[in-house]
Design a protein that fits this description.
15 strands, alpha/beta, 5-stranded mixed β-sheet, 8-stranded mixed β-sheet, 22% helix, 2 domains
C-alpha cells in the first residue's frame, strides 16, 4: 500500500529518483516507526510522514518523522553524531531509520561566525518577554570573530550577524523579528543545530552544530513546542558568560542590550 510520505526535493536529490519513488510506493518505507523527533510511534500508512536524511562525512541515515514534528529535509551532522544515533537506535531495538548512500556534506559557506579562532558557546534558557516565557538560545564566541579573509584586532561578530538578518536588541521588551530561512533543529528530543539557508537557495546548512546533541529542560522543550519558535540572542565574547541560573542569564542579557552588545532573531522550530 502506498505510504503517506513526503520526500522533499533535497532528500530526493541525495537518495536519487529511483529510491525516492520506491519509498513513495511503499516498497522500502516501514509501516510503523518511532518518530526521529518526538520518539513516539507513527505509521506511514495512517498519517503524514516526513523522510529526514541525516548526512555524515561517510555515511547517511534515512529516518522518519511525523510531518507535524519535522518537515522532510536533509540535515548535516558529524560522523560521530550519526554513528552514535545508530548505536542508540540499535540499543533501543527500534527501527526508525535505514541506511542510505552517503552524500558529501554541504559546506557552511559564509557562515557569519565560522572563524578558525573562535568557538561558539550556546546556552539554553527560558526568557520572560512581555509577560510570557519563551525558549531562548544565547550564543557567545570564545574569542573575537573577524570578517572572513581578514586578520588583526577587532570583532565583527555582531555586524556580520546583522548582515545575515539579525536585529540589534536595545531592550528585551518584545521578541526580535522572525528571521525566515533560519531554524533551530530539535531531533530525538535534543538540540542539534541552528540552521541557516544554503548557498543559492540550496538545502539548509548548520551555522552552529552541537558536538553532541544537547539535552534541554522539559520546561524549555514545552515552551518551544507551544510557540514553535526559539529566540536566539548573540553577543560578543565577554558579554554574557556562562551563567548558572536563568535569572542571572537574563540580567546579563539586559546588560548586553543596554550596552549595545546584543542582537537577536526569532527562528522557527524544527522538531519537538
Amino acid at each position: 500500500m502506498p505510504r503517506m510520505l513526503d520526500v522533499s526535493d533535497a532528500v530526493r536529490a541525495e537518495i536519487g529518483d529511483e529510491e525516492a519513488d520506491r519509498l513513495l510506493a511503499g516498497e522500502n518505507a516501514p509501516g510503523s516507526y518511532d518518530c526521529t523527533s518526538c520518539r513516539t510511534p507513527g505509521h506511514s500508512e495512517q498519517e503524514h510522514t516526513s523522510t529526514v536524511l541525516f548526512v555524515g562525512d561517510e555515511t547517511a541515515v534515512l529516518a522518519f518523522a511525523h510531518a507535524r514534528c519535522l518537515p522532510s529535509q536533509v540535515v548535516q551532522v558529524t560522523e560521530e553524531q550519526l554513528r552514535g544515533a545508530v548505536r542508540a537506535i540499535a540499543a533501543d531495538g527500534r527501527v526508525p531509520a535505514q541506511a542510505a548512500p552517503a552524500a558529501q556534506a554541504a559546506p557552511a559557506g559564509a557562515a557569519p561566525a565560522n572563524s578558525e579562532q573562535a568557538v561558539l558557546g550556546v546556552t539554553s534558557g527560558l526568557v520572560l518577554v512581555a509577560g510570557e516565557l519563551h525558549p531562548a538560545l544565547v550564543v557567545e564566541p570564545t574569542s573575537p570573530v573577524v570578517r572572513p579573509g581578514t586578520t588583526g584586532p577587532g570583532d565583527d561578530f555582531l555586524p556580520l550577524l546583522v548582515e545575515h538578518g539579525f536585529s540589534p536588541v536595545a531592550e528585551l521588551t518584545a521578541a526580535p523579528p522572525v528571521l525566515h530561512g533560519w531554524s533551530v533543529l530539535l531531533a530525538m528530543g535534543r538540540l542539534h543545530a541552528v540552521l541557516q539557508p544554503g548557498a543559492d537557495g540550496g538545502q539548509p546548512v548548520a551555522w552552529w552544530q552541537a558536538h553532541q546533541p544537547l539535552q534541554v529542560t522539559d520546561g524549555w522543550r514545552a515552551a518551544a513546542t507551544k510557540h514553535r519558535q526559539v529566540l536566539v540572542f548573540a553577543a560578543p565574547v565577554g558579554s554574557i558568560g556562562r551563567q548558572p541560573r536563568e535569572d542571572l542569564l537574563r540580567e546579563a542579557l539586559d546588560r548586553a542590550a543596554a550596552n549595545g552588545r546584543l542582537v537577536g532573531a526569532t527562528l522557527p522550530l524544527a522538531g519537538t
